[in-house]
Amino acid sequence: MPKLLLVAFEGFELLDAFGPLELLLLAGYSVTIAAPTNGVVRGGVVGSEACKSEAAKLEVRSCVPVVASHSLVEALSQKWDLLLVPGGQGTRALVGDEPFLATLALLCDASAAVASVCTGSALLAAAGVLDGRKATTNKRGWAWVTESSKRAATVEWTPRARWVADRTGGKLCATSSGVAAGLDMAVWLASDLLGAGVGEAAAKRAEYVPSTDPADDPFAALVK
Amino acid sequence: MPKLLLVAFEGFELLDAFGPLELLLLAGYSVTIAAPTNGVVRGGVVGSEACKSEAAKLEVRSCVPVVASHSLVEALSQKWDLLLVPGGQGTRALVGDEPFLATLALLCDASAAVASVCTGSALLAAAGVLDGRKATTNKRGWAWVTESSKRAATVEWTPRARWVADRTGGKLCATSSGVAAGLDMAVWLASDLLGAGVGEAAAKRAEYVPSTDPADDPFAALVK
Predict the structure, then answer these.
(1) For residue B94, what are the domain limits?
(2) In what residue span(s) does the DJ-1/PfpI domain sit (chains A, B) (predicted)?
């Protein structure tokens, strides 16, 4: 069974992680959840206008406690077939967290393929994983992601893309647009990595109609 | 902030719960997670053909430990604006669990509106919540759900439906088809319960293109 590592952190976006995970598990992956520290980490959603402050957003809207079985450092003792990095409110703090980024870079080295959803690409960029690569991200958070770190400036950001697959150096690095785009990327990933039709069969099992054209991006106009 | 109760249990389907939850949280709900016993409960995916036995399916594929802050009985001390019941492998055991079903029926009484995703409708049916109502469910599990309990025979099951909204007795009871159909139902629910356009705004925020016609069911042909 191919091994998927989900990188979880405080304030990860729920559907960023569990949408792709549903489809990738149906496609045949097993999953291990790792976080900066093992134990409970809370997923949630990006703050709504109802929330007054950044702090309140993170506090109020991070509300699904998930148990990570491994710390990120502990996860370094294994090889992974696929590493998945969600986005979410929590990326704001982590994009400047050097120990986190250094460990993430090592985990990406230890993974045959790497994928991110939404603002998860800001973390991959800051960790140097996207140096010189093509990538995309959440459309509403475009300005923040593309300016979130010095290394983000070296990425070839693609504004009109549901997802982007880059194979520079022979290693697949796939990045998706906002939240739900991760579902479509996961269907494509499963078929690319596990065999033709595997992703589509998983989507059918989940009664999901995937978008199959990575250039068909209904939300590209949100980029500012 | 309107209050959503997520009914979690061992072997709940990941996207059944976290797809609608993403959209409903973005729409303005707060969430409380309750399970038969509070503490850790594992979500996963329905077994794949790769799994040898029913036991192995449940063991191997239930792999995301989530912390429930309340037991279902504890959740009875509050009123809820919306109760959400996911489906998944775990419904097989619970559909014959009388204490669980009795508590679920009381929780539904204490909730202004009730919704289920996928085989979650088998639990609502067995608890008597769908007596004489129209409902739908997962297409691949159709035969099992519609025959899963004596009370399921009193439900007016609708095979061609992405979701079904029934308002018998003045109370909204919405049931969706398989896994990903819960996303579309959630968009509709948010607009119906919180105000016109609220669900669509949440979907846009999540870069999700919802299906808006409940009768447009691409998976109806899977019903046997």
Answers:
(1) 3-222
(2) 3-184
